[in-house]
Structures are given as structure tokens and as C-alpha cells.
Design brief:
450 residues; alpha+beta; Pdz3 Domain; 2-enoyl-CoA Hydratase, Chain A, domain 1; seven-stranded antiparallel sheet; 11 helices; 21 strands; 21% helix; Pept_S41_N
Amino acid sequence: MRYTKITFLSMLLFLSVFIFSCSDNDSSAPVYEEGTNEYVNEWMYQQMKRYYLWNTSMSQKGSLSIFPQDYFAGLLEKGDRYSYAVHPELPETAGQSLRRKFGFDVSFFEFEAKYYAVILYVLEDSPAKRNGLKRGQLITKVEGTPLNQNNYDELYLKMTSASQLNIQTVSYTAQTGFSNLKEVSILQGYTFSQPVKYTVIEDKSKKIGYVEISHFDVGQAQLFLQTFQELKNKSITELVVDLRYNGGGDIASAAALSIILAPDIQSGSLFIKFEGNTNGGKVDQSFKEALAGNESKISFEALRGAHPSINKVYILCGKHTASASELIINNLKPYMEVITIGDKTFGKDVAGFPIEDDRISGKKGWTLYPAIYKIFNSRHEGNYSQGIDPLISVNEIQQPEVFPLGNSSEILLAKALNSITGNTAKTFSPSVKCFPISVNKSDTDFLIIH
């Protein structure tokens, strides 16, 4: 997963409302020696007083001598799960997660009195993928230690903090049982751009498009255009979009997808409402304006041309569905029927942009990621900080066999297909007891605004 660095020169849509400067401090601010905690924390305080959504309830300035990350945390509103600060030269300040370090996600379950970590998602071109991990494999040992009821959460934390991961995996199918025991060693590394995967499923004379999107990257509109033009050419009449492992990203990318999906919209139709503090004010953006924020090569009209013959969309979601993915769910509702299937989403209903301390020439300083705006749809619906409840609640882990994404037997997709075709076939009773791990906020991204 990549961070997207956005300069303030690109925030053209907001210049008519207010002017922000990342490096300017109040003229009355004291002057401290460069590089000291006081120097950094004074800057942090001034930026937060200017930009932070909840700036009026911030604590007093307090001691400026403490470590900047701790100082930043002390400024946050109680219950703020979104805002964070990182330093590029201090890796320990960045969030620790399997997804960011190795490129995969897991959850835990108990089956026949034994504990397993099931691999839920593997990013393409990631350390995990390059070492052969795939969805559905079960982890039985971490650093030689078998998982059990008393240590699975401790071993998970060990995995997230490691730079090299040594695990034992096993495969499982209902037909063959457990097989293919392997020892796997993975070094922490980079994960690169993700593809948009799709397939067409034909069932009861219906052509159903299934699209899996793992992140909303800058410049993804071209990929969406190509994908949905191909689906349109295949004459799909129903659509399932899988966002269950999509932690968010770029708002213009999310707008591009929304333009393709929503029926009967115009370029000037209202897409998103931002509400900030008294400095930020309120900003409304149409579909076209939101797209133009970071997608200059693809037009609104081109994206509309790829709109398939649909008037509703099925969205697969879960606790990893956050930020721009939740925006898709909430902000399409005024324009089309949105049927969500899965688990409650993460609950990130705020937007922001990175604020970099670039006061020292040639040296990168702290970068702040504060919550700056609450976001709403065109009907002023939002306030989903506790997550969005799915219309159809389904746990994707019910059996020890977990099918690949896009497979018609996969739990959430099967539920969507049954809803589309009217199939009322009974599902199997769960045979596992799940122990999900809380999502790290570093696995989710802000809606980056421009």
C-alpha cells in the first residue's frame, strides 16, 4: 500500500474558500532551536489549531518537550481513530500491519478445538504473493509456535512487528481435508500498484459482473474506464463490487468509479459535501469537480460512456472497508440502490490531506494526517463513524475452506448471486468460531482531497 503525497498547489478547488500553508506558523509563535522537540511540537500545535476538524476542543499547548508523536496524540479529540503523525526517518512511527509490511490480511478461527489464522487477502506484487501465499491458506505456527486460544492475539502482534516472518501454512478443502504443509519465510518489502480484477458470471440467463478493487489509487480512472467498458461490451445487467479489503485512498478515483456506476447523473450533480472548522468552512463538489481534483486525463463524459445497464449495485464489505470505500456506499445512495453484503465497515467519515514540515531545507520532517473535514452525501447523510451496517449481514468465514475471491462458491459472492437470481437455497451452518482482529488504522487511508 502506498502513501499518496499531495502538494497544496494541487488543491485548486479549495482556494476560493481559504488559503492553507503547510509551513507557515502564527507570527506570534515562539522561536525554538531547529530539530528540537519544542521546534516540532510548536509547529504541530499551530497546524492543528488551523486545520483540525475539532480544533475548538483541543487541549492547551502543554509541555512541548515530549516526543512529537506523543505530543500529537495528546492534541486529538477523544474518540478520534483517524488522525496520526509519522516521520519518514523513524519507521517505528508508522503503523504496523501485515498488509503494509508483507501484503496480506488474516483473521483467526477455531475448528475442531484447534486455532488457525486464515489468509483472507493477498495483494498482487507483494512479498506475500511473491512467496506463494494465497487466500484460504491456514497458518498453524508463527516463529515455530503453534497457535492456541491463549496466544493467537500475541502472535498476531508479533507478526505485525516483525521485519521477517516465519510461518507454517496448510491447505484445506472439504474433499481432501488438510494437506500441503509448508514452511514459509517472508521478508518485509514493498507492494506495488494493484490491478482491478473482474469476471462475468452467467446464472439463470443473467450476466453478472464481479469487480474486485483493493484500493483507490491516484490515476485509477483510466483503469476503471477500461474495465467497465469491457463489462459493458459483455452486456452485463447486474454488478457486484467487492470492496471488503479496500481501505480507501484518493477521492478523485472514488468519484471516477461513482460516475461510471450511478445512472442518470449529470456532470453538475452534487456528489460530496465537506464540512470543516471555521477556517475550512463548507465545500460542495459535483461529480465533475470531484473527478477533476486529481484526474485530469479522463473526462466525465468518457466515464459515463462506460456505464453498464444497471440501476443498482451490490457491494461486498467488511471491517477493512474504509474511507473512500465507505464514501462509495454512502454517496451513491441518493442516485441508485446500493445493496451491501457482509460485515459492518470500519467507520471513517472524515477526509484530510498530509501536512508536511518542510521548514528545514533538504530535510524531511514530520507529516501530519489530521481529520480536517466530515463528509456527507448530496442529501447530507453521513455520520457513520461507528461503521456502516450492511443490509445483508453475512460472516465470510463459516467453514475452514475459504474460497478465492470471485469464485461463485465464496460466501459473500454466493450470497450476492443468490439475491440477484432469487435462489433461496439454504446455506450450511457455520462450523468454525471466529476471532477477528481489530483493523489497524494504518490499514486505512484518508480520502485525499485536493
